[in-house]
Amino acid sequence: MHTYSYKLLAFVLILLCIDSVVFAQSDSSYIAVKARCTQSSVLLRWSVSDSYYWNLTNGSGFRVERYTIKRNNNLLDTPEKIIIANDIKPLPLEKWEFEAKRNPHAAVVAQALYGESFNIGNSSTSANSLIVDKIQEQEQRFFFSMYIADLDFYVAQLAGWAFKDSTISTQEEYLYRIYPADKTLEKEIGYAYTYVNFKDEHIKVKPTDFELDFGDHIVNLVWNTKYLKNECVAYQVERSEDGKNFRPIFDPLVMNTNETDWVMIPDTLPENGKTYYYRMYGVDLFGEKSEYSDVVSGEGYVPLKSFPIITNYYINDNGVLNIEWDFDTQDQVLKNFELRWARYDKDEFVPVVQNIDKNTRKLEYKDLFPTNYFVVVAVPQKGKETSSLPIFVQPVDSVPPLKPQGLKGEIDSLGIVKLHWNSNKESDVLGYRIFRSLNKGGGFWDLNDIALMDTFYVDTVDVHNLNTEVSYKVAALDLRYNQSELSDSVVIIKPDYIAPTTPIIKSYSSTKEGIVLTWINSSSEDAKFTQIYRVSNQDTVLIKKCTVQDTIWCDDDTEYGNRYLYYLRAEDASGLLSSMSPCIEVKSILQKNQSLVAKLDKMETYRMLTWKLKLSDKPISIVIYRKQSEGKFSFWKRLDGNATSMVDKENMVGETYQYYLKIEFEHKPSIYSEILK
Questions:
Q1: Contact 9, 175 (CB under 8 A)
Q2: Comparing C-alpha atoms, which of 109, 92, 87 is closest to residue 178?
Q3: Is the pLDDT confidence value at 446 over 90?
Q4: Domain range for residue 379?
């Protein structure tokens, strides 16, 4: 017992936010239930899903169990179960007679339950037809009894399909379980649960989208059940002649049996020209009315019965449209005519000439577009208009549009080009054609066969081929396919992924002024600079960046007797570098500057270097390089720029020594002395 209670309690927690749940052994047959709380009771209404089990459960009846889940807002440890109805069946036949006399709904349900026949329509006498009629008869019994039960909760109680539980407390919350009293049927169609909570207030719905469509002594009542069908099973419309005293017009109530959410039912009007007022409400399974809709009103009227017929139209030599039409002169409700225009046949027609006298049958119209559709509309004194069939009018046009303006574009790193331009102001522009040229100064080719309606276009170009730019132009087309001049071109510079070709050193020479290089620049059109690199003592330095207009340069910052390697690289507008040119090796014979006089004096135990500078600029440092016997010159001493002498006391027997000076300045190139031996 406790295990079952705990399982039920866990199940109830799932149901707390659910109106009702169906448990069925069959996918096609089941029991459905709804509940409604009042201040003193709980109303339950259920039904089976088909006529077969409807017939069987009418004989077996239903049971209703109630589980108390909460009390005073506290969840019970074990739900309290009671069977509040053990054998709910339809009343026996003899008790229906009294109910049927005072309630026509009860008479229909009694006939469905106990009547010897329940045929609607013609019956046949063949064997096969009798079987079909019997099946159809049971379906009709089921359908009409359910229909009436949905309209009358009291009759549903008499038929055993509803129950009123008055043994309730508003401080408690309940779970109801409804199932067939016959265990075999319970296994076949299962059972249904519904949870009730007195704290959840039932909010009445209000019908919306209630409309009236008046005609000659008639009005069509139209409303939408989309937001009502979960609450309302039937509807009533009331009519009033003074807007205060309303009376219902449907008996029985109306149910929506259409496949759509819209309901339309006609109502006959006693008089035309008199205002009638209407309102409506819905009724739910428990007989409770919804709120009333807003009151809507209107009058019946005699409609137009004739249609204008356009008999002739043409454009004269001045480009003016002449149009003629016929209309029944006996139609007394005509007020006037209107000429209406549309650019295309699917567009909405708009008035271009209004208040045309009702006796007029022809007119002229001059404000024509390249394409025009016209109708003549008869406007009644009241009610719906009537219209002629549309006519198509197209004047002669051989003038092309102006050339498009404001063409601009941009390209991304993937080669996707986005173009945009200003829209042409002409009213007859059909669209635009896009033209492209892949080569500078080359011809333009169109990209689209069908006129483009927008003022932007997306194109894709190959960013890896050799052309550096792509050009576009745009032309406008009118409705007669007259093409404008091509727009001014827009040039799109492609993203650069191709390195420039390599420059080549043409010649070189070592002079007293320095090492002179001449070269042939890169052949790439987008090459901007030639970079000169020098390698000495395994150090590589970019020593000069020349423009592509330069083809010669002298390196005057070398050291006498040292050997240097040179190579070139080209740089393009995107900063891409070419591969290295072949290297050349040159020995420097740079002549030392005459503004520097240096000498070496050999003493008995040391050597004295002295020098004089004939310069206006003051050096920042004096660098002395020394060579020992057959070795190479290397850095020996760095002195302050004010120094004028230096003593070398290092003496090795049998060794000879050579020297030269490098004078360094802050804002000018260094100068060198001759080699001192």
A1: no
A2: 87
A3: yes
A4: 309-393
